[in-house]
C-alpha cells in the first residue's frame, strides 16, 4: 500500500490552513464540501454526511485537514484542537484489502457507499493493535482526487 496522506480533524479548517502555511510553508487545495453516503461500524443504516476538507501542497505525503463535525464520524471530541485521525493509502483492490484486514482482526469503521449500498471509494479501518485509523482509498478515484489537490479541476 502506498501512503499518500495524513489526515487531521481540526476545529477551524481555515485557521489550521493559515497556521500550517505560516509555519510549514504549505499551500492548499480549495476547501471543498464533499457530500457522502456512508455506513458506520457495519450498521445497515446509510447516513448522508457533509465533509469539509482541504489538502496541502506539495506532496506526497499530503496533509488532509477535515473540519470537525461535532458528534459525527469526524469529530475531535472533548479534547478540541487538531487530532491525528488517519493514515491514507491508495489501494488497488479495496474489497480484497478490507477482507484481508478483517481476517487479521481489523474492524471496519466507515465506508462510502453507492446508491445501492455497495462499498465504493474508501474504507476506514481500525488495525487490530489500535493506533490511527487506516483510510484505504480506491485507486480508481486517484485522477479525480489528485486534480482537486493540485488545483487542476
From TrEMBL:
Q: Name one Pfam family in it.
A: Glyoxalase_4
- What's the name of the protein? VOC domain-containing protein
Upper classification of the source organism reads:
Bacteria, Bacillati, Actinomycetota, Actinomycetes, Pseudonocardiales
Specify the superkingdom: Bacteria
SUPFAM superfamilies per record: Glyoxalase/Bleomycin resistance protein/Dihydroxybiphenyl dioxygenase
Q: Which Gene3D superfamilies match?
A: 2,3-Dihydroxybiphenyl 1,2-Dioxygenase, domain 1
Amino acid at each position: 500500500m502506498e501512503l499518500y496522506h495524513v489526515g487531521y480533524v481540526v476545529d477551524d479548517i481555515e485557521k489550521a490552513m493559515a497556521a500550517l502555511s505560516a509555519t510549514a510553508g504549505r499551500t492548499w487545495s480549495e476547501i471543498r464540501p464533499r457530500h457522502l453516503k456512508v455506513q458506520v461500524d457495519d450498521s445497515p443504516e446509510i447516513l448522508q454526511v457533509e465533509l469539509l476538507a482541504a489538502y496541502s501542497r506539495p506532496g506526497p505525503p499530503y496533509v488532509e485537514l477535515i473540519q470537525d463535525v461535532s458528534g459525527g464520524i469526524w469529530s475531535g471530541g472533548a479534547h478540541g484542537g487538531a487530532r491525528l485521525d488517519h493514515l491514507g493509502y491508495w489501494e488497488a483492490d479495496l474489497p480484497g484489502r478490507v477482507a484481508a484486514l478483517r481476517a487479521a482482526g481489523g474492524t471496519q469503521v466507515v465506508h462510502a457507499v453507492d446508491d445501492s449500498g455497495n462499498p465504493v471509494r474508501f474504507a476506514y479501518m481500525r488495525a487490530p493493535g489500535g493506533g490511527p485509523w487506516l483510510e484505504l482509498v480506491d485507486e480508481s478515484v486517484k485522477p479525480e482526487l489528485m486534480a482537486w489537490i493540485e488545483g487542476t479541476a
